[in-house]
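Exercise 3.2. Students should predict the tertiary structure of the chain below and write it as structure tokens, then compare their answer with the key that follows.

Predict this chain's 3D structure.
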Amino acid sequence: MDDFIPITVHLESPSGVTLLSWIVSDCDNTGYVTTENSEEGIVSLYCLPQNVRRFEDLLSALRDEGFPIVSWRMQ
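Answer key:
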């Protein structure tokens, strides 16, 4: 089985953590979110290697729509 790839996501506020987790879990169970630092809005999004681009596109689209995403990076 493939290992999950972590993508660190920085949100403007911790209020977006739960909503991001729900959005990711609704993506055909291809990823999941864990909170790294709730006070700073830092989470890790884990996805399969073949879905990395899909989740980067999702994060970009969410930010373009006003979701409070500051940045993300692959580890």
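Discussion points: The two ends are 19 Å apart (CA to CA). The helical segments are 16-25, 52-64.
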